[in-house]
């Protein structure tokens, strides 16, 4: 007879997880990469990216975008209630065209330079936290 470990604890959020962690631990690292992002900086970037969306229900992202940019854009799209598609650029042009032709109304996600955007978001978050 083996023992069974029952994990009954449940972690729930009343907001998006990145917004929760930005409020709870704003200076903790959310994305550890060449250009790390704190939870606060991630929240600022997600909110800024969300403002780039129009009224179409679907946001299409390019699979060749930088990973950090993809993450920020996906979170922003989800926060905005959008459906998302990361279009695989390894597919042939004919397949990509067929996918997009059958998708319905969509918009291409605007990309941003993750280094300058991250720095700007960090500066903005820092400025707000020290009362600038």
What does this structure look like?
With 132 residues, this protein is α/β, with parallel strands linked by helices. The chain has helices at 17-24, 39-50, 67-79, 93-101, 114-129, and strands at residues 29-31, 37-38, 58-62, 83-87, 106-108. The model has no long low-confidence stretch (mean pLDDT 84).
Features:
132 residues; alpha/beta; three-stranded parallel beta sheet; two-stranded antiparallel ribbon; 5 helices; 5 strands; 44% helix; 14% strand
Short description:
44% of the residues lie in helices and 14% in strands. With 132 residues, it is α/β, with parallel strands linked by helices.
Task: Tell me about the largest β-sheet.
Answer: 3 strands, parallel
Rg, Å, rounded: 18 Å
Query: Level of helix content?
Result: 40-55%
The quaternary state of the protein chains shown equals single chain
Taken from the alpha-carbon principal axes, the silhouette is globular
Alpha carbon gap, first and last residue: 63 Å
Strand-helix topology:
Layout: H1 17-24, E1 29-31, E2 37-38, H2 39-50, E3 58-62, H3 67-79, E4 83-87, H4 93-101, E5 106-108, H5 114-129
Parallel strand pairs: 3-4, 3-5
Antiparallel strand pairs: 1-2
Helix pairs in contact: 1-2, 2-3, 2-5
